[in-house]
Each structure stands twice: as C-alpha cells, then as structure tokens.
Write a structure and sequence with these properties.
Blueprint (H helix, E strand, L loop, with lengths): L14 H29 L2 H12 L1 H7 L4 E2 L7 E5 L4 E9 L4 E10 L6 E10 L4 E3 L13 H12 L1
Length: 159
C-alpha cells in the first residue's frame, strides 16, 4: 500500500462544537473539586476537631447523642465561615452518636487584632428541633477558654 505525498489533506473537524460541549462539564468538575478541597480543609481543621472533642466530653452531648460522637455523614459538609485571620469563626456541621444526631454550631469572634477569641455560641440542635446551649454547662462562661493554660499547668504539676 502506497500513498502519494502530494495528496490533499483531510478536512480538520471543527473543534468549536466539541469545545462548547465539554467546557460546561469541565467547569462543573473544577467547581465541585474546589468545593470538596475547601470543605476537606475545614473538616480537618483544629477548630472542628476541638469542638468535636469538646462535644464528646460534654455532659449534654453524651446525654443527648450517646457515645461514639462523630460526624453524621461519611463525607461531612462544614457549613459557614472559618476565617482565623480576620477573627471570624461560624461553623455548623452534622454530628451523631449512638442515641441520636443533630447539628452542632460554633461561633467565635476576635474583636481586636491581637485579642482572644470569644465564643458567642456553641449549640446542638437535635433532629426533633430542640436547641441545646452547650456553653451553659457550668464549665464557666466559655468551654474553650484557658484550655492551653490548664493543660500546661497539669503537665508542670506532674513533673
């Protein structure tokens, strides 16, 4: 089989139609990937881990949710803003235990640039609509206040 070198080239198919078909799919995939990456960053943050740990050790959390408190969904979605640089944290996510499930909300604000964060809300909204305030547990006004200082003091006492 031989081909002539001076033959006419085949027509080039218009890629405009293909581009118009695949570009929306590309945008959807990129947007979904970006949202998943940002949500993963929120879900693995120290703020979410600390609030989830505090919920596990909370008497109200244990009473209402039971044991083995963790994210409600296999792939948890963290709603809200987590902006430590500007001093605004307001996150909500689903939690579950052996007895029930609900939505936990944590809101904390830093008023000045070098100030401390003040917790304004730490609540648990159960599936039946009850909203439980977790800050009113008698732990003081803020369950997250001075936790570093207490840990360092207990370590110094052991040595």
């Amino acid at each position: 089989m031989t081909r002539r070198a001076d033959r006419a080239l085949p027509p080039i198919p218009s890629s405009r139609k293909l581009w118009l078909k695949t570009f929306p799919i590309f945008l959807v995939v990129i947007t979904a990937s970006a949202l998943a990456i940002f949500n993963y960053q929120k879900a693995s943050s120290s703020i979410v881990n600390a609030t989830l740990y505090a919920l596990r050790t909370s008497e109200i959390g244990k009473r209402e949710l039971g044991e083995q408190i963790y994210f409600r969904d296999k792939f948890p979605w963290i709603w809200g803003e987590m902006n430590q640089l500007h001093g605004r944290i307001d996150v909500t996510f689903g939690v579950k235990g052996t007895k029930g499930s609900g939505m936990m909300r944590f809101k904390s604000i830093r008023r000045t640039r070098m100030g401390f964060f003040e917790t304004h809300e730490w609540s648990l909204e159960m599936e039946d609509g009850r909203k439980l305030q977790l800050l009113d547990e008698g732990r003081a006004d803020d369950a997250f206040k001075d936790t570093t200082l207490k840990a360092e003091t207990s370590l110094e006492a052991e040595t």
